[in-house]
Amino acid sequence: MPKGKESHRGARVFLKRSKPYTGYHDYFSKAVDDCINSSSSTDAAAATHSEHSMMSLNTNNSDEKIDRIVDLKSMGLQAAEELSKRPKNGEIYASVKADFESINARLKNLSLSLGEPSSIDEGIEIHDAALLLKLLDKSNREIDMAGEMAQKGALLMVHAQIMLKKGQELLDQSKLKLRCL
Predict the structure, then answer these.
(1) Fewest CB within a 10 Å sphere: which of 52, 122, 124, 161?
(2) What pTM value is reported for the model?
(3) Quick check: helix, strand or coil at residue 139?
(4) Other beta carbons within 10 Å of 53
(5) Distance (Å, whole) CA 16 – CA 55
(6) Domain ranges for the chain
(7) What's the domain of life for this entry (predicted)?
(8) Mapping DSSP to helix (H, G, I), strand (E, B) and coil, where does residue 156 land?
């Protein structure tokens, strides 16, 4: 089998597997079949294209709908990006900005207590401080990661407390069972 026909057959298999929009699938599937079955693939492609020009007119409406959807998505992304770049004005932002120095100082103090046992409240505080700094666009990757790790650490500590209570309950129930003997 000539190489050209193998590549067309691969394209036909791909089209059948991917099944894009119905109009395109039928149009391209027939075009590929015509190219495979003809002796001259370029002549067949040109003939197939002219034969199916009416079908392509019908699919133009769906193309326009798809283009509108894509444009809406890109406009939405662009709008979100512009919103994120807008300056944060207002009394809330002003009061949080005033406390920026104290937030940084508190994070430094928390980082100095590295060897001491940490509490759930410290984890929540680090996470919230990281979120505040992110809101003010004063954050960096390390602060974001520290905030995420602190949140996960606090969650694990809460889970550990819950599991400790459940473990205590199970041990108490086992002792009650033993008393019945």
Answers:
(1) 161
(2) 0.48
(3) coil
(4) 9
(5) 19
(6) 3-61, 91-179
(7) Eukaryota
(8) helix
